[in-house]
Batch of 2 targets.
Target 1
Amino acid sequence: MVVKIKNLFKYFDTAPAVNGVSLDIRQGERLVILGHSGCGKTTLLRMIAGFVVPDKGSITIDGLLAAKDGKSVIEPENRQIGMVFQDLALWPHMSVYKNLEFGLAAKKISKNERNERISLILEKVQLSEFSNSFPSNLSGGQQQRVALARAIVMRPKILLMDEPLSNLDYDLNSMLRKEILKLQEETGITMLYVTHDRNEAFSLATRIIVMKHGAIQKIGSVNEIKMFFKY
Amino acid sequence: MSKKLTILITIFLFIVIGLVPVIAMFVKSLFVGGHFSLESYSLLFKSRQQWHLLFNSLFLAGSTTFITVLLGVPLGILFGKTDLPGKKIFIILFVIPLVIPSYILAIAWFYCLGRSGIVSGLFGREIAVVTLNFLFGFSGTLFVLVSICLPVVIIFTITYLRMINPKLEEAAKLSGQWFFVLRKISIPIIAPGIFLSALIVFILALGEFGVPSSLRFDVFPVESFIQFSAFYDFNAATASAMPLGLIILFILVAERLFLRKKTTQMTIAKESILKISLGKAKPFLFIAVCVFTCITVVVPLAILVKKSFVLWAYKEAFIGSIDSIIRSLLYASAGATLIVVFGFFLGYLLEHRTFRFSYAADSIAIFLFALPGTIIGIGLITLWNTRATNFIYASAVIILFGYIAKYTALSTRFMAVTFSQVSRSMEEAAQILEVGWIKRVWGILVPLVRKGLISTWLVVFIFCLRDLDITMIVYPPAHDTLAVRIFTLMANSPEEIIAALCVIMALITLLPLFILGLVTIKRW
Amino acid sequence: MKRLYFFIGLCLLIISPGISSAKEEVVVYISEDRVFSEPILRDFEKDTGIKIKPVYDTEETKSTGAMNRLIAEKNNPQADVYWANEPIRAIVLKQRGISIAYISPSSEGIPTIFKDSQGYWTGFSARARVFIVSDEKNAPDSIMDYIDKQWKNRAVMANPLFGTTTSWIASLFVVWGDEKARDFMEKMKTNGVKISTSNGESTTLVVNKEFAFSLVDSDDAVNAIRAGKQVKQIYPDQDKNGLGCLILPNAVVLIKGGPNQKNGRKLIDYLLSPETERKLAFADCAQIPLHKGVDTPADVKKIEDIKTINVNYEMVAKKLQEIQQFLKKWTKY
């Protein structure tokens, strides 16, 4: 079990955004949280990452208590989590290489190893030749890959993805989906993916959670969820 | 060091430097001869003069605000939305009175309208008597203050006009004339910005010391000091500051309730905004603006330059003042640097609302900004003038404390706006990559808000450089700045030297502004 | 790292004057106009090698910071010497226990009415309250002309709430008693005496012939005449039995517990010397030396040639605080 969530609540003002969610994320799986906007899925993700502190309930990551009942025990920077943001959040003042290196350098990883890991990952996402480019000079798909590479290069315990493909056109979206699948299969990384798009969910997931009004409506395999929606 | 700790330390330091002196002063005023007593305050309610002064101050600030908005919004629209020629030059000219020490303008007008001034020479004494009566007292103070505060409204109007989503105007333009679009769409949308600028003008006018004291209009910040010296009574002076403090608190609450939510909803539009074509009205408007600029800005500056235009004056002024000039630049840069550091963290706090008391820190900053500098000055003396803290009180540190207390509000608000333009995920992305807080600050936040930092630094630098009221009260022996030096030299000095010093002061203030201009023009 | 060192260096530079007090220096707060006092203090630096650390204010700009600071700093004095532009402030400092007695050798020869008997303050270089008049043939010669029907609506004086005008009114209260002085004030009102904002403005009003005369400081009158204006200066009430003319000397005070007492005394000796008085007489402030026999320019009267109001300045200071409310009412606050 990589992440264990127990009876999680989060209120904004007085309305519950996340309303008593419990769930386990298993090693190596691709778990997708599916739901309409405002169902609490992003809040749940941000609580796992540590940007939002749960009002009630607990989050355990890799056996260590990360947050409980309104208190953050482990800060985001120490949770060993990777994340791809909806707006990607590529640092505009750094080259692709520097974007990838920044986290590694902060972790005091040697120059040689940094180099090795970065070139390996850039190769995997087919961006080796763009190592010195700046994000603003890359296409949408390339930026997407940089964001992904930046998250994976740290070798996190779990990779969180917050609707990373929602702003792309259909062709690019399906192409990148395939790449994400491939990358996950090669690395075996545990992945938690948040989306409102059923197609994305069905093509990526090994397991799907459907959320509504801050609570889990249904958990199941892709086929079970398809049945649930009478797809 | 964690994020929370850094911000807590920043808030703690700011409160110690800025708020504690004011509180210390208040507490001290409650004790007469070692015993708790409200005597100072009961005396206050009996004194008619205090209420008279308060009324004068409020009336002056209110009139200044009203006229500035009335003139500033149309000018802002002209400069921000139309094809008026020479817009940038006009904007720069209008900004000058705001950035130089306020009393310089008053001096210039005195040289022009005074009994032995230029008008008197040209049109005879009878006219000069009329102009002098206009200059001294309410009308002259109002006129000079309006020309000083006008750029605030103009710049806010231009900035907010830029932030309107162009589609809103485009949609309206399909069904109406520009006048209609402005009245029904643009101005209502930027109303929060106009209110905010009006608030700033009100605060600036309320705390103004240099102009009313030079033009002899009795307002609170000036007269509280006279009374203070006539009776040598600190308690009475503190007590008399209380009504003003309450009014400022009231303004703060109003701002919080009515303005806060609305003003943060805009972002700088990436698309180009619609421009109004002035058509036939263009030459008339151009001439009108030229005349107006001449009256409010060009004439007084020209008078100063002309008056100072003898070589010996500059030589004399420069030789005697070189130390003060260096100190001015040194203290203003040190002050601006520290204030930007405070503004960086407090602005971050304000924008990200990391803690429940995010607004409290901002409110304290605004409160101190609105409080007349003379009061902050007395507070600083009350708190720091002890043997143990002499290294602060007897050094320039006390001046820097005064600057921090007064001007941190500016940097906090500017940095908050800057941070609001930076996506929060930029920092979160680094955080999740196991990058610690300090590295995030230096590696991500600082580079991303670099331009904002530089602009904020320059603005704060200018405000420190032109500061008179705080520096005047707390400067340690042999530490006077140029603004103070000119003010203390004014009595009975040769007019040529004062004029030359004013020109030097204006030049060293405008130099950084010129650099700022280069930076922003490049960006536009 | 270099930046850090630079920053630390900058900090030390800013703090340094606060911690280094080993040098020969003297801290002086000054209420006399800076344009006149600064050259004297620079000369002192040149002559003695002692560094002057000044805090200036000027009454004209209503800043009055120096005096307030002296009071505020009572428990931790920063200043050694206070140079007041009139004795009243010096007396308030004595009342508040802020000054300390020092009888300077230079004060010898200064008439006793211009100094504190215990040495808490000593007067030097004085202004006189004189008339500036626009018409030489028909001129007033007594302050009683302010209430003379002949001059109805033709006289002006500065706002009595401020500066030397306040001291003048207070001295009348002391010499005449409250009743007569109040009566005089009311009669001035009915005689249409115009109130100007300052002595400087009064001077200009008379120079421009808008008013016939005004009581101003002697330096205002002398400067107008030196600038070639068609006006005359008249010392009022100089008859044998006349009231005399009010003299307002500068006053110098040694501050109790100041950091450089020894140098403070040296500065006081220097300021009270006939040589300083001579310089101030020849400067634009045209002040009257209080030592006998000091050289003056032709247009500055010598003290021995003036009939002065014989008034105790300590009583004037006390009266001044008493009549504040009356004056405020009188000027219609």
Target 2
Amino acid sequence: MDTLLLLAMNGLIWGLIIALIALGLSIIFGLLDIINIAHGDFFMVGTVLAWFTLELTGNFWVAFLAVPLIGFILGALIQRAVIQPIHNVAALSIVATFGLSLILQEGVRITFGTTPRRILPPIQSTFHMFGIDYEIYRLFAALVSLLALAGFFIFLHRTKLGTWMRAVRHDRETAIAMGVPAQRVYVLTFGIGFALAALGGVVAAPITTVEFRTGVDILPFCFMAVIIGGLGNLPGTAAAAVLLAFLEGIIQSFADPTVARISSLVLMSAVLLVRPQGLFKGLTK
Amino acid sequence: MTEAVLRTENLTKRFGGLTAVDNLSLNLPGRRLHAIIGPNGAGKTTFFNLVSGLLAADSGRVFFQGRDITGLKPHEVSRLGIKRTMQIKSVFPQLSVAENLWVTRHATKRVLHPFRAASSDLETRERVEHTLEQIGLTALAQRPAGTLSYGDVALLEIGMAVISEPRLLLLDEPTCGMSPAETERAVAKIKQLARTIDIVIIEHDMSVVFEIADDITVMAQGGILASGNPDEISGDERVREAYLGRPEDEDYVEEAIHA
Amino acid sequence: MMTPAVIARVMLIAFGAFLVAVPWLIPVILNKFWVSVIAEIMIWSLFAASVNLLFGYIGLLSFGQALYFGFGMYGVAIGVATLGLSFWPAFGLGIVASIAIALVSGIFAVRLTWHYFAIITVVFSLIFYFFAVSVKPLTGGDDGINFALPPTFSIGGVTGSFSDANFQYFFILATVALCFFLMHRVIRSPLGKAFVAIRDNDVRAALIGLNVYQLRLIAFVMAGFLAGVAGALFAFFGRYASASYMFYHVSGEAVVWAIVGGAGTLFGPVVGTTLFIVIREIVSTHWEHHAFIVGAVAILVVIFAPKGLVGLWNAELARWSERTNDASVKTKLRTEP
């Protein structure tokens, strides 16, 4: 019973981190019509940058600010250099982001190496829960993710840029006709998408390992959250990420992790076939 | 009385709160050219979509030559011989003009041969060449359809409808966007077709409607406002009101009166 | 006269002659190793062709073709190693297995189009990937199954076997060439024209009487067949099968090869696959990070040649022939009445 609660708890925390990453994937998809194969690697780059920040400054907390900022700049540059020239053509963007994914992974292998490394949590203390010592940092990670999610939704609904983003997602032609600078919105969207994934990387770095492969593992999970939540449905995506990670956590308590993964994939297939608009359509506006 | 070529019973289609086609019961006898007119949003195109199977009706039935075709899929409806053109001109842009006709001619066959070269089918080749001559596009046969002018695309659409040997042709604003010269050519073509094929046409250009139609049905808000021959319709008070109720459609009435 | 059609024919004959001469030519100018690289390129070209049949001809972007490649591979490996089959039954088992799974998954997948189709195909392939990884006794998981190669045939005293490098090369060449020939026939047939019509405009295709769902399913199964043959060949070529070949990265590579080479052209996948495997083989002897170059080339091609390398070539050729035949083109132009 204790392990069950523990795994459920871990699942919940992972779900919040995944929600951050998947949100970036979802806005890039919703606004630019791009299936971003490199999105997992944006997360991976976040973990690696967090590691470098710790190496250079000796202070992990700096990474919480610096890495999303670097991520934003990288994302904006990538949009201008790679995505904009192909005019958001979906099939080409898949190839381009696949190429991007290879470049990011190899770039990390060249600079960081292939050996997986661990980062010690900046908060070392633990507390007693469910019969074991639970890391306080994990709770902190959940809190940061929650704050970032809340911050993002406030940004979307309360700022001019956020309104532009929602307008372009809703109806590109009309938005452009109304004077929304779509090109700038695309650049910023890609930057924000990268920044969210990179922040997810920083938050997750002390929980997981830092290596060039983590993006490949996390990408299918992010896509599941986006699909099950409903393409373009941001609150649905966040909810689906938490739900999925939570369910996988619980299934893992009595079965193989692979069985957990297969179950979520089967669930996702069912959602795609029966409710391609996502599980939560109609519940949110 | 002859069996109606197209008949609907209480056909209804709603989109959310809007009832696009409202309890529509139509009876279109064969051997006549029917025109359906009405202000924007009257449900004309939705009606075509219901007949051709692109949309499923919420209730009601559709009969084609006495046969219930309600709920059939678009390709099943098409294989019964009901062909239609789209309001927004729609061909296969990357296939050549000849290939567009080719594929249309072949589409009705039960089995598409997977290995024999399409060009080796002499019977179809002759049909394609004949149709190209009919619509006057022989010189453009090898051009990708996506590079044609608007009027030529419309002619190609008519050609595609003809080559499939329809029993009923649904034309959705065939002259929309055409130049006067192109319109004239298209109208002549439609008149010629109507001698052998049952045609239902949706048209906004009143001079065209009154020139070619045997019968006119006026739709408004998803239902039938009036129906009759062109003389009856042009004199109908309710029809004038329906159009006058919408200032942007005023010129239709002008045209209708002077046609 | 050198029309584009004549140029294409001359190039095809030259290309065919080169492929036949490879086992004698390549060891002289390069070395024996490159013969097997070319054999591998042919197998992967066939795999990329399965992506191309779906995306280039009927407009469905599959990101899960590795599943059918994997079934072809495991059909052979399990057939030989576990069931003790000889060459042809194992080959047949691989192909039948991939067709069967393509049919079953296609029944669901082709209900969807576009992004949803891309995603459901990758989901299906991931389900079986994780399945293959976890059922170690049957599949060997990521380590895979190694097996001893059975002879291909034995008539009288003559035995053909993949252990003979030349035999292996020509068997692969003949099989891949046959598959490409079949695909060429399909593309030019009424069925192929119907595929392209659906790619161009699926609503219109239904209105002229094409059964869009059924035709998409047929194309999907055909693509599964091509991927399955490639997988079965690769199993014989490498003498093993592994779950890692069913991962989505393998599917993704095929998508990149097909689109960079030129989707919707018969030889586009061959060009794309050749480009990337040659880069890999040349760069990896000098620098271990060849994937970096691969990624950069993929991005550059989609930016500067959005129709792929073959598309770019065809466009240049058409421009060239238009210039040289200007006079004859003028007479073909229709005069507006």
